[in-house]
């Protein structure tokens, strides 16, 4: 994995030299390039803690704003998306050499430390020190050592001999959270190769999302256009229902607000984009709500004009079939 990363770095840096430009994202993208993606100047405390640890443990030399972004993503992603964010995090960093851990072990190490430090909000070095103090204070034979040295040369202050109990509690809570929060490690790591080669698409802006106002605007055509635009932008079905209210205007917005005000157990309240195969699906409820008599008459007229004639191509016949489905809905 790192061989490909290093080769990408070399190719990208060579393009910088050839083009003599500080930003070459229009030609080649490498999210570990500090020239194309300079980091935010104001670092969060948890990112500073992360970088202090990571750069001291591994041959990491520079990071970008994507490194900061991917670390932030770890605070809200779940399941397999955790590993995708960690992979992106690793490859948003430049290295002077290949890390000594194998790639899967490196991912697991980052997640373990992230969990133990509660998202790098706790200082890892303090936690490690306190943990070593716990082990020392409970080690076999410690009492015997004290008895054999009744008069030490220099007496340590009591506050130095007693580790902070609050830190202990935080450490224990973090370890307990780690046990609960870690996904099924074996299954997750086994799927890493597939996740790397075929990661889920990130949302972007490739196509403009259309607005719907109601009236004689065709709800079926609009829904098809909206779905295509969402798919082009990487917006999954689970997110479409969150996005669509912003693109319903006028009468359509009024309908949506009234629908969402229905009781939770109402069979006509939209709760999903698709999948339920009833009126709780947006893709079924919405077209029915705006299927006006005027539109039916328009569709019927189009259908009569598009009846397949001898020699008519299949595409035209398919359009007629779609119109027929609208009028019969």
What does this structure look like?
- The chain has 329 residues and is an all-alpha fold.
- The chain has 3 domains: 2-124 and 183-197, no CATH class; 209-290, no CATH class; 292-329, no CATH class.
- Helices cover 57% and strands 2% of the residues.
- It has helices at 2-19, 45-57, 65-73, 80-91, 103-116, 124-137, 142-148, 158-161, 165-181, 185-190, 192-197, 219-232, 237-243, 251-260, 282-289, 293-305, 314-328, and strands at 60-63, 93-95.
- Strands 1-2 form a two-stranded antiparallel ribbon.
- The longest helix has 18 residues, at 2-19.
- The protein is elongated.
- Mean pLDDT is 77; it is low at 134-163 and 314-321.
- Residues 314-329 have a biased composition (Polar residues).
- Residues 307-329 are annotated as: Disordered.
Write the layout of secondary structure elements.
Layout lengths: L1 H18 L25 H13 L2 E4 L1 H9 L6 H12 L1 E3 L7 H14 L7 H14 L4 H7 L9 H4 L3 H17 L3 H6 L1 H6 L21 H14 L4 H7 L7 H10 L21 H8 L3 H13 L8 H15 L1
Antiparallel strand pairs: 1-2
Helix pairs in contact: 3-4, 16-17
């Amino acid at each position: 994995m790192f061989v490909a990363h290093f080769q990408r770095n070399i190719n990208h840096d060579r393009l910088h030299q050839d083009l003599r430009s500080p930003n070459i994202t229009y030609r080649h993208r490498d999210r570990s390039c500090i020239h194309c993606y300079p980091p935010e100047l104001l670092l969060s405390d948890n990112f500073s803690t992360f970088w202090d640890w990571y750069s001291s443990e591994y041959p990491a030399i520079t990071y970008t704003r994507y490194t900061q972004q991917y670390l932030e993503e770890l605070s809200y992603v779940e399941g397999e998306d955790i590993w995708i964010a960690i992979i992106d995090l690793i490859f948003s960093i430049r290295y002077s050499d290949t890390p000594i851990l194998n790639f899967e072990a490196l991912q697991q190490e980052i997640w373990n430390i992230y969990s133990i430090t509660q998202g790098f909000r706790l200082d890892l070095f303090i936690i490690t020190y306190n943990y070593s103090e716990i082990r020392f204070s409970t080690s076999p034979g410690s009492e015997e050592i004290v008895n054999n040295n009744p008069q030490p040369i220099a007496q340590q202050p009591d506050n130095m001999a007693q580790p902070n109990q609050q830190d202990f509690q935080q450490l224990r809570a973090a370890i307990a959270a780690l046990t609960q929060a870690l996904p099924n490690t074996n299954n997750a790591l086994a799927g890493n190769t597939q996740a790397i080669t075929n990661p889920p698409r990130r949302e972007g802006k490739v196509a403009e999302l259309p607005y719907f106002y109601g009236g004689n605007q065709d709800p079926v055509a609009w829904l098809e256009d909206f779905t295509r635009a969402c798919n082009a932008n990487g917006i999954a079905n689970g997110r479409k229902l969150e996005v669509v209210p912003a693109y319903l205007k006028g009468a359509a917005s009024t309908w949506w607000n009234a629908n969402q005000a229905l009781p939770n157990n109402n069979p006509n309240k939209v709760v999903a984009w698709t999948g339920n195969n009833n009126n709780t699906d947006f893709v079924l409820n919405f077209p029915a709500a705006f299927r006006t008599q005027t539109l039916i008459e328009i569709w019927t007229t189009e259908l009569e004009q598009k009846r397949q004639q001898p020699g008519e191509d299949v595409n035209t016949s398919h359009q007629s079939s779609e119109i027929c489905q609208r009028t019969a809905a």
